[in-house]
Write a structure and sequence with these properties.
The structure is a single chain. By secondary structure, the protein is an alpha/beta fold. About 35% of the residues lie in helices and about 10% in strands. The strands form 2 sheets. A 3-stranded mixed sheet has the order 2-1-3, covered by helices on one side. It has a two-stranded parallel sheet with strand order 4-5. Strand 1 and strand 2 form a beta hairpin. The protein is elongated, with a radius of gyration of 25 Å. The N and C termini lie far apart (about 75 Å).
Length: about 190
C-alpha cells in the first residue's frame, strides 16, 4: 500500500471533519423536528412526551369533534384549543365559552353541548363550572358571588392568561375565605 503524502492526509482529515459536522447537523435537525411534532395524547400513549417551558398542556372536552389532552404553545387562546380539538361539534353552545381567553397549563376547556343550559338561563349547570370558560352569568349563579365579583373574576382570569387553580381567585378583590369554600365546590380549573 503506497504511503500518503502530508497534503493527502490533510485533505482526508478535512473531509472527515466536514462529514462529522454535516452528520451532527442532520441528527440535530431530526431531533428538533420530532420534538416539535410531539403532541401529548394520553389515550394513544401513556409515556410522557418531552415538555418545553414554552408549552401548556390542556384538556379539551365537551362539544368538540376530538376531545383530548393536547400540548399547545404558551400564550394561545381558547379558540386555538377548540380548533386543536377538531372544532365545534354539532349543537355546541358557542356563546357560552370565552374564545378569547388565554390558556394556562393544566386548564380544562369545556365546550357546552346541546344538552347544556345556555349561559344565564334557568336550570344552571349540572356540576362544577369550568373556571377557564365560565361567563359572568354562570359565575353570578354561584352562591356568594354577585355580578360585580363575577366580572372581577373574569377580568382577573383574562389579565393573568387564565387560571390553573381555584386558589388563584384568593387574589381577586372581594373574595374572602367563605367565598373561597363555595368556589372550591362550584368551580373546576
Amino acid at each position: 500500500m503506497p504511503e500518503l503524502s502530508r497534503s493527502q492526509l490533510l485533505l482526508y482529515a478535512v473531509i472527515a471533519v466536514a462529514v462529522l459536522v454535516v452528520g451532527a447537523r442532520w441528527i440535530r435537525s431530526g431531533e428538533r423536528n420530532s420534538a416539535g411534532a410531539a403532541e401529548l395524547s394520553f389515550a394513544a400513549d401513556s409515556s410522557p412526551a418531552r415538555e418545553s417551558t414554552d408549552d401548556v398542556v390542556i384538556h379539551v372536552a365537551g362539544a368538540v369533534r376530538r376531545p383530548g389532552v393536547y400540548r399547545m404553545p404558551a400564550g394561545t387562546r381558547v379558540t386555538d384549543a377548540v380548533k386543536r380539538g377538531g372544532g365545534f361539534a354539532g349543537g355546541a353552545n358557542r356563546d357560552a365559552i370565552n374564545l378569547a381567553a388565554r390558556l394556562s397549563d393544566g386548564q380544562q376547556v369545556v365546550v357546552p353541548g346541546p344538552g347544556s343550559a345556555a349561559a344565564g338561563s334557568a336550570g344552571g349547570q349540572s356540576g362544577p363550572v369550568s373556571l377557564g370558560s365560565a361567563t359572568v352569568e354562570q359565575l353570578d349563579e354561584i352562591d356568594g358571588i354577585g355580578p360585580v365579583t363575577a366580572q372581577k373574576i373574569i377580568e382577573f382570569r383574562d389579565q393573568h392568561g387564565g387560571l390553573s387553580s381555584i386558589e388563584q381567585l384568593d387574589q381577586v378583590n372581594g373574595i374572602g375565605p367563605s367565598t373561597m369554600q363555595t368556589l372550591r365546590s362550584a368551580l373546576q380549573p
